[in-house]
Each structure stands twice: as C-alpha cells, then as structure tokens.
Amino acid sequence: MKIVRTTSTNQDFIALVALLDADLAIRDGEDHSFYDQFNKISQIKYVVVAYENDKPLGCGAIKEYDSNTMEIKRMYVSSDCRGKGIASKVLSELESWTTELGYNKCILETGYKQPEAIALYKKRAFRLTTNYGQYTGVENSLCFEKKLV
C-alpha cells in the first residue's frame, strides 16, 4: 500500500469523497444537508489518498481549525477494502503531517451512526471531547481530540 500526500483537486480524492457523501446521505438521512454544508472540499489543502496497485482505497484530509489545531475531515475507505488497517494508516499520516506543519492537536467530528469511525478514533487514542464550533449542541455529533507530541 502507498500513501500519497496531495490536495483536494486530486481526482481520486474527489471520487472517494463522492462515495463517502453517498454513504453519509444514507446514514444521516434528513440530517445530511446540515452536515454536508461543513464538508466542502474546496478549502482543503492537505489530503492523503491510500493506493494499492494504483487503485485508490481510502482518503482523509486536514484543515486548519486554529493556530494550534488541525481538523480531520473526509475520512473514508471503500466498503470492499475495510478491515485492512487502511484508515489507521491514513489517520497516522494525517497526524504526522499535522505535526510537520507545526500544529500540536487534531480534532474531528463524527456521528453516532458511524460506529466504525468511532471505534477507529478510540483505537487511535483520540478522546471524546465537548462538541466544538458548528457541532455545539448537535445531538447526533460526537467530537474527538488528540494532542500530538
């Protein structure tokens, strides 16, 4: 497997995000449009795509939240490739990139209807925190953070 750093103009990333959005539209139901407004990729500069034999398998991105914090966005692994550790590798690369850029914390939001994501973040030592920003008071959102060394 190869992990590639790129930008949100990468066509494989765009295709994977389309699959992610289709999955989230089903999971989130009528709440999807609320979440969708915060997940546009045009402002994202830092993207990671995982490949195997030139086939894109998964992706993730980071976006500055504040001067110390990057927000993890658009984490996705194709349904036929799950359970192989791809998301952990993508997340690890995003954490490394965050520290290389001089930030010391990652935050993220996920939903109760994404148990695979919740399990991943707990496994990777993210801790549950109070909902931040636009997710404050949103019942179906779970926010996590991880301080990086």
Key descriptive features of the protein:
149 residues, 7 strands, Aminopeptidase, seven-stranded mixed β-sheet, alpha+beta, 32% helix
How would you describe this structure to a colleague?
With 149 residues, the chain is an alpha+beta fold. 32% of the residues lie in helices and 34% in strands.
Q: Kindly, what is the distance between the CA atoms of the first and last residues, rounded to a whole number of angstroms?
A: 26 Å
Tally of contiguous helical segments: 4
Oligomer: single chain
The CATH superfamily name of the domain at 2-104 is Gcn5-related N-acetyltransferase (GNAT)
Spatial strand order of the main sheet? 1-2-3-4-5-7-6
Taken in chain order, the helices and strands follow as EHHEEEHEHEE
Rg, alpha carbons: 14 Å
Structural class: alpha+beta
Helix content: 25-40%
The global form is: globular
The residue-averaged pLDDT reads 91
Short summary of the structure?
By secondary structure, the protein is α+β, with helices and mostly antiparallel strands. The protein has helices at about 10-30, 30-35, 85-100, 115-125, and strands spanning about 1-5, 45-50, 55-65, 70-75, 105-110, 125-130, 140-145. The protein is about 30% helix and about 35% strand.
SSE diagram, text form:
Blueprint (H helix, E strand, L loop, with lengths): L1 E5 L4 H18 L3 H5 L9 E7 L2 E12 L2 E9 L8 H15 L4 E7 L3 H9 L3 E3 L11 E7 L2
